[in-house]
Amino acid sequence: MLSNTFVALSLLPLTLAHFQLTFPKARGFSDDVESNFPCGGFNDVQKQRTDFPISGGPIQLNMGHPQTNIAVYVAIGDNPGSGFSVVARQQLTVDGLGNFCIGSISLPTSLNVSDGTLASIQVVSNNHESGGLYQCADVKLVNTQLSQTDYNNNCKNNTNVRVSQENISGNPNGSSTNASPSTSATGATPSSSKGAAAQAKAVSWVLGAVGLAGMAML
Ligand SMILES: *[C@@H]1O[C@H](CO)[C@@H](O)[C@H](O)[C@H]1NC(C)=O
Ligand SMILES: *[C@@H]1O[C@H](CO)[C@@H](O)[C@H](O)[C@H]1NC(C)=O
Ligand SMILES: *[C@@H]1O[C@H](CO)[C@@H](O)[C@H](O)[C@H]1NC(C)=O
Ligand SMILES: *[C@@H]1O[C@H](CO)[C@@H](O)[C@H](O)[C@H]1NC(C)=O
Questions:
Q1: Is residue 131 in contact with ligand 1, taking CB distance under 6 Å?
Q2: What GO CC terms are in its UniProt record (predicted)?
Q3: Which of 21, 44, 119, 200 has the fewest beta carbons closer than 10 A?
Q4: Domain map (residue ranges) of the chain
């Protein structure tokens, strides 16, 4: 039954609306190459960086799939290539379309960053047959917080968007947990619930892949 769904799915056009990073401003977005690691095909660092508060700033996304797994990684330095080794937000599942804001991501206190440190942020999602989808932004870390107005303008949730699961182990692109970055923003990676988390991940993968049709069938 499920395989029928997969057959049907494989007939769908590959360029369903994916997800976009809108704050901090992404390097760029192209549906066709968003599945290219790293940064969805945009390898050049932006000349114009967005100021991003060290104390924590929002990540604004525009979701194009009914259910998506997301994680946020950070690389310190002026041109990190593919070295996004810091987990700023562990994998979560978001349900719903359109505006979704992760209210605040912040960096592990063990990182030696200060006002003016250059960094890059990569948001990774699942929902692609060959792995993940990628969006990057280049930022300058600053001690100043966003004004309330800037925060409100760059952190919005559509009414039907919600987080259904948090702190899922592994990388949304489906690469093994071992290969994924290990530095956690909290320093605490849930390990006791590893089996359950892995299973939950598998289930959300299926849901992510087959969408609502699959959910109805389960
Ligand atoms: C998945 O992400 C990891 C690091 O986040 C990367 O090393 C790997 O190449 C990615 N896999 C694919 C298929 O893009
Ligand atoms: C949007 O939802 C996320 C996840 O539940 C939350 O972190 C964020 O603070 C919310 N933002 C606003 C402006 O409500
Ligand atoms: C932290 O960075 C500052 C300047 O960026 C440097 O002077 C200092 O030695 C660094 N400290 C550690 C512990 O790496
Ligand atoms: C996920 O982890 C964060 C940071 O450790 C914690 O604050 C939050 O309560 C956790 N959420 C769940 C649902 O366990």
A1: yes
A2: plasma membrane; side of membrane
A3: 44
A4: 2-211
